[in-house]
Amino acid sequence: MPDLPPPPDAALIRARGLTKRFGSFTAVDAIDFDVAHGESFGFLGPNGAGKTSTMRMIGAVSPRSDGELSVLGLDPELAGPSIRARLGVAPQQDTLDTELTVRENLVIYGRYFGLSRAECGRRADALLEFAQLTERAGDPVEPLSGGMKRRLTIARALINEPDLLLLDEPTTGLDPQARHLLWDRLYRLKQRGVTLVLTTHYMDEAEQLCDRLVVMDKARIVAEGSPRELIERYSTREVAELRFPAGIQDSLDGQLDGLAERVELLPDRVLLYADDGEAAAVAVHQRGLRPETVLVRRSSLEDVFLRLTGRSLIE
Amino acid sequence: MTVMSRVVELRAMQYRRTFRASLFSSFLNPVLFLLAMGVGLGTYVDRSGSATQALGGLSYLQFLAPGLLAATAMQAAAFESTFPIMAGLTWQKVFHAMYATPIGPRDIVLGNLAWIALRLTMIAAIFTIVMTLFGAAASPLILLAIPAAVLTGMAFATPIAAFSATQRTPEKFNAVFRFGITPLFLFSGTFFPISNLPAAIQPIAWFSPLWHGVELSRALALGTIGANPLLAIVHVVVLAAIAIGGAAWAFRTVERRLVRG
What we know:
By secondary structure, chain A is α/β, with parallel strands linked by helices. Chain A has helices at residues 51-58, 76-84, 102-112, 117-130, 146-157, 176-191, 203-209, 227-234, 277-286, 301-309, and strands at residues 11-22, 25-36, 40-44, 66-71, 87-90, 164-168, 195-200, 212-217, 220-225, 238-243, 262-265, 270-274, 293-298.
């Protein structure tokens, strides 16, 4: 079985027409993407967009239904164990062993990769340090907070010093402080040159961590680029968010025309897309409209998603 | 082989937390059963001439103990192949975590089955020591009753593990115990010879894997295996066939669950 690392400039992951079907349901519909060595690559999209199915195909645990896929230069169908030996996987749901201690979870995971006990112990201690869990080393897993469990799951995924780290919704369900701590850890990995592939439905997470991302919706890729590029391509520099008193918004029709490049009416607010959000807000007032609140902010990936799909990321 | 041994290593690591209590109950269980049924009830049974005749001149304790050995292996096997499999695939999902490493579905199945076989060996060995202390061993061949009991247990462990991998909640496990394990425990020749059952029901007992296990362990513990070696071979073949068929089924059900995620 060929098991040589790909040349440094080659894509670590290459997908063409990649498809996953479950019976008559198509979870991933003929998507194309490449992930380069050392890159931090994201799949952004709402729940059910096909992100996890894609990750499981990359992780060589779920066979593709159609198309081509190469991971680390190998075909997951033919070389599953060889690929998995060089991946680190942090699944969406923590799959920690609650019958073991924090440190034992790391040690046994290293054993799965065939590392010696002594090596597993050394790496476990270093990873506990990295995940800021050294003080909890001998504790059972269950009383740990959500953020700690997540950090342990990610530490566990690093025990084999993977060439590629797969993170499925790394911070879903965590409070803001825990998220920022986790982002900081992931950012350090990125700086060390670890190739990260992650899925998220948080635009701020994608902006923080991804060099490049694809936006997925309904099993397809609808856009691709760096967060900055996507915002420039699909949105304006700024957005003015207006909230009107109840009932007023429905009677606005036409009154906002021409105030911005694009006007988006959401159930609870109006978005004015303009390069100068402040000026757009002023123009609203000049027309005699009185929104209850006005917030001018920079465009985000949320706006890109809204533009591409007509829907919000988190509903 | 080496890959599968890592799965066994995990199970041993998990077991370390509870092994003292577990070994103690492996010892206490046969002591209590042999005291109550073998000695207590046995005293009454042995006073009845017709019973002694039906048991072929054996004391009730001698008759009961090897059957109970096989039945205990069955019960332990059924337990070990239900809840721990559900924990690995559904609750903690530790098997899914393993599958993200070079370990494959077959290694996971084989490793778990090897662990169950190890546990059954411990349980059967302790049981055999207790039996010997009670004076229920009539032949040194009783040592071979240990692998016979393990084989009996595996004939239950493999198909039950395969079934467990198809379940997402433990509700049907109750049915397995209530309508499978308990009736077999009671009517497979453990407590009384199946010749005491109504003639119409007797052939049904032949379909009970436990009956084959009970007969085999008994023939070994009492040293009567030489009387009908062909029958002993039939018992081994039946039990091994079920164990292997169950393992093949478990390969399929466990793999399906792991691939589906």
